[in-house]
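Progress note, sequence design subtask.
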């Protein structure tokens, strides 16, 4: 693990202009630099780099951050991997933190396994290119599939000889331990001895997101009907099949650049499409999609196009897993290739332009595709049509966005020739059922946790924040109150020097019936962001002086003013990330040399540093011509009047919004018929009223009191 001193060296050495100019052509404009954003396609440059602040910001797509954030985003690396990348660029020697014996053992074992897999790839490549068996069997197969030398080299394709222990024997002779050959799954140990798992197969190395070889896939070249056509490495310390996607290492940048991912089934599909010029493609390796694989894709894009073989074999089975993609909020389209073609064969017949044009012309959204497919199968059979409708409704119900659900419901009502009202009722019923199940699961876990900590059931229960409430009609009612979020504690091992580790804080008791999403246009959201901007830009600045009990003047900083003012009215920021930022600002305000903007821009949490970059950026700069001879009053010079005004505006707006959603929660039948819960919510509403009245008076009665 990288120690703090080394991390600080990397941050100090990393010049934001130097780092970004390696990837983007930048032109000087005033004190900043501008260029075309590398994260989305644009003709006019909206990508700005500020050397003085050490940040970048794209005003087109919204991405921003420091040098580490840029490398993480552009190269799709983790925080630690990005630090290592920058260390290599600036010739900084990485000083590792002392590990425990257990950590050393785990790290050593993992590294040993990666060394073995790396050697295996070299061995298989050598067998493919430099042995008679490999050339005739393995290379001959790849040639017949239309792969050229450049593609074979890029993907590290190889061949495992037919001999029972060809690879194992060579590895042992080279000094590699039997233990790690077996653990990686390359060698099988039995009563008869050691033998190769992948004998007589062409080899496809499987790489993780960082490009490390973690496993292999092998296709048999013999006519042994007892053996599987394709064989993968077993699960191991370095390889978890459900978390990996074939080709993700080569596709990640193209996926980000095009904001789209093609999903195919097999290794050769990915490889052939790469060779044809389409690089934003990954494969599930013949297995059903898992939630981990979906989240991996979701890191790079929200848009997925699934490519199916033209004969339609296995489509009905595979579409069941696509509901998981919908549940993650992804935009899914399906493209059916011509009969007799799969993504591999179609790529060999067409170049990238023609392939892309075909997809754009023939792809349809998943719900429409599924509806048409199942309707064709159901025909006029009423039982099958009922089953079809249930399946479609289930797919629509898992979509998190209510607007998208509404659009799909309307389209399906037209396709199925059914009343939209019936479909809406069915969708809402499934949503209610899912939320109720989730609610029960939360309760079960809470009971289990209570039993684990306290064997005897308590006679009284502490007041907790509300859990999710089943809602029959999402179009009229807000989501359930937010779950408690734990205070963020920066990682000690990867935290830059000068950023003291936060001490564990008790879980906050934030109570809210306002939905967490979809508030971007609400007044309270805008006011909350403005206050957060004050914290990031000017947090440590003294905005005024107040007299204490002894009549002495004490400085009041922006952070102290915002924090104390919110606590005075028992209010908090609505968004967990915003609460984390304010809490950390409070904790580190009095640290020596604390500068709020620098602290958050160089924060190890990418979410926080990106948010800070967003808040620290200025969209427009006043030119020297227009400012010449004029005394420009900056925000910093009028903090004493700006911050209090923003505070009162935020308080009024969030209380009003909270009161509205609290009343809406009372319309829920489950709450209405629960006197205790109803009383609890009414008490919450009364407390909000008590807060609102004096605030309105301070503001000059700028709201209508209810």
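Output:
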């Amino acid at each position: 693990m990288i120690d703090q001193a080394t991390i600080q060296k990397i941050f100090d050495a990393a010049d934001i202009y130097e780092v970004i100019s390696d990837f983007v052509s930048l032109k000087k404009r005033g004190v900043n630099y501008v260029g075309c954003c590398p994260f989305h396609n644009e003709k006019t440059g909206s990508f700005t780099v500020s050397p003085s602040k050490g940040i970048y910001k794209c005003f087109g797509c919204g991405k921003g951050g420091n040098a580490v954030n840029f490398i993480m985003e552009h190269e799709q690396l983790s925080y630690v991997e990005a630090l290592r990348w920058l260390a290599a660029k600036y010739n900084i020697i990485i000083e590792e933190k002392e590990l425990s014996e257990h950590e050393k053992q785990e790290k050593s074992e993992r590294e040993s396994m990666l060394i073995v897999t790396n050697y295996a790839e070299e061995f298989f490549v050598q067998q493919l290119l430099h042995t008679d068996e490999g050339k005739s069997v393995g290379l001959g197969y790849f040639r017949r599939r239309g792969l050229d030398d450049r593609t074979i080299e890029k993907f590290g394709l190889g061949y495992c000889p037919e001999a029972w222990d060809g690879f194992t024997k060579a590895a042992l002779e080279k000094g590699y331990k039997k233990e790690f050959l077996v653990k990686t799954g390359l060698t099988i140990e039995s009563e008869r001895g050691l033998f190769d798992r992948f004998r007589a197969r062409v080899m496809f190395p499987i790489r993780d997101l960082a490009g490390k070889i973690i496993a292999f896939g092998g296709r048999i070249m013999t006519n042994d009907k007892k053996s599987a056509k394709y064989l993968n490495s077993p699960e191991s310390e370095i390889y978890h099949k459900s978390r990996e996607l074939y080709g993700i290492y080569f596709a990640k940048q193209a996926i980000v650049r095009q904001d789209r991912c093609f999903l195919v089934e097999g290794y050769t599909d990915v490889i052939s499409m790469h060779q044809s010029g389409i690089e934003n493609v990954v494969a599930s390796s013949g297995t059903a999609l898992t939630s981990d694989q979906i989240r991996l894709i979701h890191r790079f894009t929200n848009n997925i196009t699934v490519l199916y073989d033209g004969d339609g074999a296995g489509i009905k089975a595979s579409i069941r897993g696509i509901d998981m993609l919908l549940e993650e909020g992804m935009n899914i389209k399906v493209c059916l290739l011509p009969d007799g073609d799969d993504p591999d064969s179609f790529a060999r017949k067409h170049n990238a332009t023609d392939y892309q044009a075909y997809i754009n012309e023939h792809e349809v959204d998943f719900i429409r595709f599924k509806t048409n497919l199942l309707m064709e199968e159901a025909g006029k059979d009423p039982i099958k049509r009922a089953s079809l409708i249930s399946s479609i409704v289930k797919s629509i119900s898992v979509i998190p966005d209510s607007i998208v659900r509404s659009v799909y419901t309307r389209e399906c009502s037209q396709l199925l020739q059914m009343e939209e009202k019936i479909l809406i009722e069915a969708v809402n019923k499934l949503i209610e059922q899912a939320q109720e199940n989730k609610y029960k699961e939360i309760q079960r876990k809470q009971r289990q946790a209570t039993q684990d900590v306290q064997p005897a059931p308590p006679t009284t229960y502490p007041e907790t924040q509300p859990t999710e409430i089943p809602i029959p009609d999402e179009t009229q009612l807000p989501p359930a109150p937010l779950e408690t979020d734990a205070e963020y504690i920066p990682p000690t091992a990867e935290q830059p020097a000068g950023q003291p580790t936060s001490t564990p804080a008790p879980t906050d008791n934030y109570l809210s019936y306002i939905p967490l999403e979809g508030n971007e246009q609400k007044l309270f959201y805008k006011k909350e962001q403005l206050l957060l901007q004050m914290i990031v830009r000017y947090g440590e600045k003294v905005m005024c002086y107040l007299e204490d009990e002894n009549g002495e003047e004490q400085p009041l900083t922006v952070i102290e003013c915002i924090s104390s003012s919110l606590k005075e009215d028992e209010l908090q920021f609505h968004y967990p990330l915003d609460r984390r930022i304010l809490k950390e600002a409070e904790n580190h305000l009095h640290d020596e040399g604390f500068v709020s903007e620098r602290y958050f821009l160089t924060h190890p949490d990418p979410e926080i540093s990106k948010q800070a970059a967003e808040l620290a950026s200025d969209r427009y700069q006043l030119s020297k011509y227009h400012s010449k001879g004029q005394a420009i009053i900056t925000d910093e010079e009028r903090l004493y009047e700006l911050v209090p005004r923003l505070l009162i505006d935020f308080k009024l707006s969030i209380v009003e919004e909270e009161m509205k959603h609290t009343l809406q929660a009372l319309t829920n039948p489950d709450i209405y018929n629960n006197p205790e819960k109803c009383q609890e919510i009414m008490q919450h509403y009364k407390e909000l009223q008590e807060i609102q009245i004096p605030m309105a008076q301070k503001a000059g009665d700028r709201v209508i009191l209810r």
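The chain is about 50% helix and 10% strand. Work on this subtask will continue into the next period as scheduled.
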